[in-house]
Amino acid sequence: MTVSDPTAKPAESADPESAVETARRQLERAATHLDVDAGIVERLRHPTSVYRVTVPLERDDGSREMYTGYRAHHDSGRGPYKGGLRYHPDVSEEECIGLSMWMTWKCAVMDIPFGGGKGGVVVDPKELSADERERLTRRFAEELRPVIGPMRDIPAPDMGTDPQTMAWFMDAYSMQEGETTPGVVTGKPPVIGGSYGREEAPGRSVGIVTREAMDYYDWDREETTVAVQGFGSVGANAARYLDDLGASVVAVSDVDGGIYDPDGLDTNDVEDHDETPGMVSGYDAPETLTNDELLELDVDVLIPAAIGNVLTAENARDVSADIIVEGANGPTTSSADEIFEERGIHVIPDIIANAGGVTVSYFEWLQDINRRKWRLERVNEELETEMLRAWNAVRKEYEARDVTWRDATYIVALERVADVHETRGLWP
Ligand code: NAD
User: Fold this and answer.
1) Which residue, judged by its Cα, is nearest atom 5 of ligand 1?
2) Using a 6 Å cutoff on CB, does residue 361 contact ligand 1?
3) Which residues form the Glutamate/phenylalanine/leucine/valine/L-tryptophan dehydrogenase C-terminal domain (predicted)?
C-alpha cells in the first residue's frame, strides 16, 4: 500500500471543476460566514491520508491483471471515516478526496458520529464476470484491511458496487480477522446485518427534503411539477415518494434518454434502471426527450439524480425550474451555482438531500454493533426525525444569515466539524 502525499496539489484535470476543487471552494465560501480558525480551515482543505493500492486479479482465463484502488480519509474528528467504494474507470485520487470531503460535511449536517472517507477501484465492473468481481473485491478488502474497521473506516456501496459487493467485502475482512464483523461495511444484504430501508433511503431523503422545501415556499403539493434525471436507486425512489405525496412527476430519464407526460407519469409503473436497464426510454409515454432537454424543462422542481457536473455554466441559464434538489453527488458546478444564485433559483445541496443513505448506514452500523435488528417502520420513522432535525438546523441558518441553501448547509456542517477540532485541539 502506498500513502500518497495528502497535501499535494491535485493533478491538473481537463475539467476545471474537479470534485476536490468544487469541494474546496464550497468550504472556503462557508468559512467566510464563520469565525473559524484559519488553521482549521486549511487543515480541512486536505485529507488526513490517501491510500493507493494495487489489486491483482486472476481473470477467468488464467491471465493476471493489475488494478489501482484508492481510499481517501478526509477527517475523523467526529468519528470513524465513512463513505462509499466506487468501481468505475474514472475513479481517481482527486475524485476520492473531493467525495471524502463531502462525506465529512454530510455526516456533520446529519449530526452522525462519523467522518468522511471515499474510495474505489479504477475498473469497469461490467467488463468483469461475477467471479472476477468477487475476487477483485476480496483482494481489495485485504489490501485496505490495515486502514479500515468498524471503529476506523466503514465503506459502503457507491457507483458500480452493490449489496453483494459489500457481502464479499465483509466476508473477506471477517475471515482474516477471525470473527464475523458486520459493522466493517454498510449497505449489506439484510440477511448478513444490512438494514431494512437502506436501499431506498437516499431517494427517500431527497423526497423528504423536497417536501419540506415545497411546504417552506407554501406550494400546493398537488400543483407541483417535478423532473428527475436518472431513474436509478436515488432518482426512482425520490420520484415515487413525491408521486405518492401527490406531486406531478412529469419527466424521468436514464442514461439513454427520458420520457415526458405533462399530466404526470405513473412512476410506479416505470421500471427503474436496476429493475430493467433501458426501460425508461423504452416506456410508452406521450413524449420522449433528451437528458439535456429534461434539465431545461419548465417544472417547479428539478432533481438531478444521475451523475456529477450535469449543471454547468453552459446550461445554467437555460434551467427553468424554481428549485433544484441535488439527488446525485456534485451535480452542480460552482459556476452554475453562481448563475442560479443570481437568477434566484434555489439549490438544496446533495449533502443534506441524499444524506438519507449515510443516515440509514449509521442505523445499520448501530444494529450490527448491538446485534439487534430494527423493523422497517422504525428505520423510516427515525430517518424522518433525523431529516427534519437537519432540515430545521439548515433552515435556521438560511433565515438568520440570508445566504443560499448551500451556504446555510455548509455553515451548519463546518461549524460542527470546526467545533470538534477546536475542542479536541491539535496533537501533539
Ligand atoms: P444508479 O446506478 O442506481 O442509477 C443511476 C441512474 O442514472 C440510472 O438510471 C442511469 O441510467 C442514469 N445515468 C447514468 N449516467 C447518466 C447520464 N450520463 N445522463 C443521464 N442519466 C444517467 O445510481 P444511484 O445509486 O441512484 O446514484 C445516483 C447518484 O446518487 C450518484 O451521484 C451517487 O453518487 C449518488 N448517491 C447514491 C447513493 C446511494 O446510496 N445509492 C447515496 C448518495 C448519493
Assistant:
1) 232
2) no
3) 195-425
Ligand 1 and 233: CB distance under 6 A = yes
pLDDT digits (tens, 9 = 90+) for 118-135: 999 999 999 999 999 999
C-alpha cell at 348: 438544496
What is the bridge-based pairing of β-strands 301-304 and 323-325? parallel
Separation CA 254–CA 234 (nearest Å)? 12
Pull the grid cell for residue 217: 415556499
Residue in this structure with the C-alpha cell 477546536, named with its chain if needed: 422
For residue 8, what pLDDT is reported?
53
Catalytic residue status for 118: yes
* Catalytic residue chosen out of the listed positions 82, 106, 118, 188: 118
* Per-residue pLDDT at 11 exceeds 80: no
Kindly report the protein residue whose alpha carbon is nearest to atom 18 of ligand 1: 255
The residue type of 300 is: D
Q: What is the pLDDT of residues 367-383, one digit of tens each?
A: 999 999 999 999 999 99
Residue 74 amino acid letter: H
Indicate the pLDDT class of residue 266, thresholds 50, 70 and 90.
Answer: very high
Asked if 288 and 259 touch (Cβ cutoff 8 Å), the reply is yes
Percent with pLDDT over 70 in the chain: 96
Average pLDDT over residues 283-310: 95
Kindly state the DSSP code that residue 173 receives in the 8-state scheme.
H
Q: What is the Cα–Cα distance from 205 to 156, expressed in whole angstroms?
A: 17
Q: How far apart are the C-alpha atoms of 126 and 37, rounded to whole Å?
A: 46
User: What confidence category does residue 278 fall into, taking pLDDT thresholds of 50, 70 and 90?
Assistant: confident
pLDDT at 402 over 90: yes
In the chain, the domains with their CATH numbers are 48-188+408-428 (3.40.50.10860), 201-353 (3.40.50.720)
Interval between CA 305 and ligand 1 midpoint (Å): 6
Q: Report the residue among 273, 293, 302, 348 best suited for mutation to probe ligand 1: largest number of ligand atoms under 8 A from its CB.
A: 273
Sign of CA dihedral 369, 370, 376, 382: negative
